[in-house]
Design goal:
The protein has 471 residues and is of the alpha/beta class. The protein has two domains: 7-173, Rossmann fold (3-Layer(aba) Sandwich); 177-470, L-fucose Isomerase, Chain A, domain 2 (3-Layer(aba) Sandwich). The chain has helices spanning 20-36, 57-69, 87-97, 123-137, 154-173, 195-201, 210-218, 225-237, 245-264, 277-281, 287-295, 306-319, 362-368, 428-437, 452-462, and strands at 7-12, 40-42, 76-81, 103-107, 142-143, 177-181, 204-208, 269-272, 300-302, 323-331, 338-343, 357-359, 376-380, 384-394, 399-410, 419-424, 443-447, 466-470. It has a six-stranded antiparallel barrel with strand order 10-11-16-15-14-17. It has a five-stranded parallel sheet with strand order 2-1-3-4-5, sandwiched between helices. The radius of gyration is 25 Å and the shape is elongated. The two termini are 33 Å apart.
């Protein structure tokens, strides 16, 4: 799926008694910026209405019809106001189009030295009127950081990049299809979730028993072309020299079966029972396969944490970077704002630095035998940006809720096994209080690109979820 290619419907707002040149210049500026950022555009031709702008009821009908004709590809609507704009024309267009996509409202600033009649815009005021009408119509919308901003500035380009992330989250979370592979481990009540609450939102879950996965994998021959192709991909992905070759073959067979099952159902992400049936009944860990899927933008979570993989998927969509599922696992000395994130070894390679390698699962191995646990990854996340998110279904209150925030990965030393990272989160203790008091899981999703503001806008403005944006 091509998440990167985006299309926006553009509405150029106009009030006829303002200078025509402002509309022509504004339209041209905006189209230049959209082209620069590789965004496809659906917009009225300049001769369809006066200057291709929207002002009257008839203009609104024309623009709405154009948007409906391209409804299958429009990811969001951008309203640009080179002058005051017509509040009803904008709101009517969006209501008539009925696309149910995010809306961004941008207004041009006036030049304080050019406030004469030939260059006066009044878009500062007009934006308030447009937003007032959108509010009255019940149309959710997003705003630029600055009330008025020129499209060609870096400030607006950041706004636009954020808005594209919001559009991706809104479009792909609604209708997301998740795969639950195996039963929730009996000891993990924390990963229970409500399929019904997810389905009411638009997210569906397809399930398969591990016995079916094992049965299909065991029927594959070592010389099967699909198995050999997957072995090559594993070898190109991570060092396997510390692992017996037969264990890697077993993983390859598992990967073939999981991939074919997910493809047959058009699934976008998966959550897998990794603890401990895989080791006891099949003889390997599935961490490397999960890591490869997450790196290729098909996130995979362990312990059948379906809302955990939904959290990963949301972070991935926000910035088009891989995500991983982590445990909020350990304090880091006595620093109240630092902690250690950990998992057995299923993080995408993007988080593991240059020296990652395939290994065994030392914790499970103490009970089922190390020889049955090969397939984990080991690596340490290097310093850089850090964002985290957690979506959960709150069954007691019949709602989906979330928390999100930004922090940083640190290079502080940590000597342990598996995949791990040392992070700093401002006011971490307050966040942990919120997590514990509000019934959130011990798992969270993470990514190495700042994403909290994008998810907050998507979750609150367009989904209506109760969301903590941790400052």
């Amino acid at each position: 799926m091509n998440f990167a290619k985006m299309t926006l419907g553009v509405i150029v707002g106009n009030r006829d008694f303002f200078p025509d040149v402002l509309i022509s210049e504004g339209r041209r500026d905006m189209l230049d910026v959209l082209a620069e950022m590789g965004i496809d555009v659906v917009i009225l031709d300049e001769d369809a209405t006066k200057l291709g702008a929207v002002e009257t009821w008839q203009h609104a009908k024309l623009c709405a019809e154009l948007f409906r004709q391209h409804a299958d590809k429009i990811d969001g609507i951008l309203v640009t106001l080179p002058n005051f704009g017509d509040e009803k024309g904008v709101a009517d267009t969006i209501r008539l189009a009925g696309l149910n996509v995010p809306v961004l409202v941008q207004a041009y600033p006036d030049d304080i030295d050019r406030m004469f009649i030939e260059r006066r815009r009044d878009a500062f005021c007009g934006k308030i009127s447009v937003c007032n009408n959108l509010y009255q119509y019940g149309i959710p919308f997003s705003l630029t950081r600055l009330h008025t901003v020129n499209p060609k500035t870096e400030s607006f380009k950041r706004d636009l990049a954020d808005f594209l992330g919001v559009c991706r989250v809104v479009k792909h979370m609604r209708g997301a299809r998740f795969g639950a592979i195996g039963a929730r481990p009996n000891a993990f009540n924390t990963t229970r979730y409500s399929e019904k609450l997810m389905q009411a939102f638009g997210m569906s879950v397809s399930t398969i028993d591990l016995s079916e996965i094992f049965g299909r994998a065991n029927k594959l021959e070592d010389k099967d072309a699909r198995v050999n192709e997957t072995l090559e991909r594993i070898g190109a992905y991570v060092r396997t020299d510390k692992v017996p070759a037969p264990a890697v073959v077993k993983q390859a067979k598992l990967a073939v079966v999981i991939d074919e099952w997910m493809t047959s159902l058009d699934l976008t992400a998966s959550a897998i029972q990794c603890w401990t049936s895989l080791q006891q009944n099949y003889g390997v860990s599935v961490c490397t396969i999960m890591s490869m899927m997450s790196e290729s933008m098909m996130p995979s979570a362990c312990e059948v944490d379906v809302t955990g993989v939904a959290s990963m998927y949301a972070l991935q969509l926000a910035r088009l970077t891989p995500a991983a599922l982590v445990d909020w696992n350990n304090n880091y000395g006595d620093d109240p704002d630092k902690c250690v994130l950990f998992h057995c070894g299923n993080w995408a390679k993007s988080f593991l630095g240059p020296n990652a390698f395939m290994s065994d699962q030392k914790i499970i191995g103490s009970t089922v035998g190390i020889e049955n646990t090969y397939g984990t990854l080991e690596g340490v996340t290097p310093a850089g940006p850090f964002s985290y998110a957690r979506i959960t279904t709150d069954d007691r209150n019949g709602q989906i809720k979330a928390y999100i925030g930004d922090g940083e990965f640190l290079d502080d030393p940590i000597k342990t096994f598996g995949t791990n990272a040392v992070v700093r989160v401002p006011r971490l203790q307050a966040l942990m209080q919120h997590v514990c008091r509000n019934g959130f899981e011990h798992h969270a999703a993470m990514t190495n690109a700042y994403s909290a503001s994008v998810l907050n806008e998507a979750f609150t403005t367009y989904f209506g979820w109760e969301t903590l944006l941790h400052a």
